[in-house]
Amino acid sequence: MEFPGFAQEDFDLFTIEGFAGRMAEIRSRLRPKLVALGETLREDVAAIAGEEIFPHAAAHMRRTVNPPPETWAAFGRSARGYKRFVHYRAAVSADGVRITVFVEDDSDDKPIFADALRRDAAGLLARLGRDARLLWYTAPTPDDTPLAGNRMTVTAAQAMGETLATRKLAKFQAGIPLGRDAALVADPQRFCAAALQAMRQLAPLYHAANPAK
Fold first, then answer.
1. What's the CATH fold of domain 8-209?
2. Domain boundaries, given as residue ranges, for the chain
3. CA torsion, points 164, 111, 213, 151, in degrees to nearest 10?
4. Alpha-carbon distance 174 to 88, whole Å?
5. What confidence tier does 62 reach under pLDDT thresholds 50, 70, 90?
6. Per-residue pLDDT tens digits for 68-82
7. What's the CA gap between 206 and 86, in Å, rounded?
8. Dist CA 52 CA 76 (whole Å)
9. How far is 205 from 68, CA to CA, in rounded Å?
């Protein structure tokens, strides 16, 4: 299956109440598209990451009651799974698509990434640039909204590193929302170009958690 782009109905399915109904739509409608997206982007993501990349489509096997608020294609360095290591996600929700770098709470790369934030926050922020489109989802503001990239400070990034280093259940996510505008998401070539550009912009975060590459 070639990646066909996303339809507005793909995002609307996240309004379906109940686990069984929503999961049925995710599995039949979205998961095949995410598998196709993974294969389409695999080589280009590998070039950005500087290593072999394996795509995975979320299965949500641990969920049995609460319907997932989003699903995703993940791009990581292991064929066996993505959660142990830093990875890119192309996540789909009612808000559309966002491209993120994700480090799970029990990731092997979490201590490395936490240390990078504590030691080199200034350098990392400089490499990322001061772009308001980049959202730090794990650095919420007092009203619990993500912190925009042009508002992230060295002190806040260092504090985030300390949290990741000392809190077992802390995880990390930052990324760039692409939204759900049909002109972008329904056009496979245009969407893939935008997704790859977002991954390039986020590459300093990926490499901070995987410095060997």
1. BirA Bifunctional Protein; domain 2 (3.30.930)
2. 8-209
3. 20
4. 10
5. confident
6. 999 999 999 999 999
7. 6
8. 8
9. 26
Which one has a higher pLDDT value, 213 or 109? 109
- Residue 165 in tokens: 């280093």
Q: What is the DSSP string of 112-131?
A: HHHHHHHHHHHHHHHHH---
Q: Mean pLDDT over residues 108-130, rounded?
A: 97
Beta bridge partner(s), residue 96 = 93
Whether the CB-CB separation of 4 and 191 falls below 8 Å is answered with: no
pLDDT tens across 142-163, in order? 888 999 999 999 999 999 999 9
Residue matched to tokens 């280009």: 44
Neighbours of 134 (CB within 10 A): 23
**Identity of the amino acid at 48:** I
Q: How confident is the model at residue 192 (pLDDT cuts 50, 70, 90)?
A: very high
pLDDT digits (tens, 9 = 90+) for 4-23: 999 999 999 999 999 999 99
Residue 54 sits at the vertex; the CA angle it makes with 50 and 59, to the nearest 5 degrees, is: 140
Radius of gyration of the chain (CA): 17
Minimal CA–CA distance to 93: which of 141, 26, 21, 19?
Answer: 26
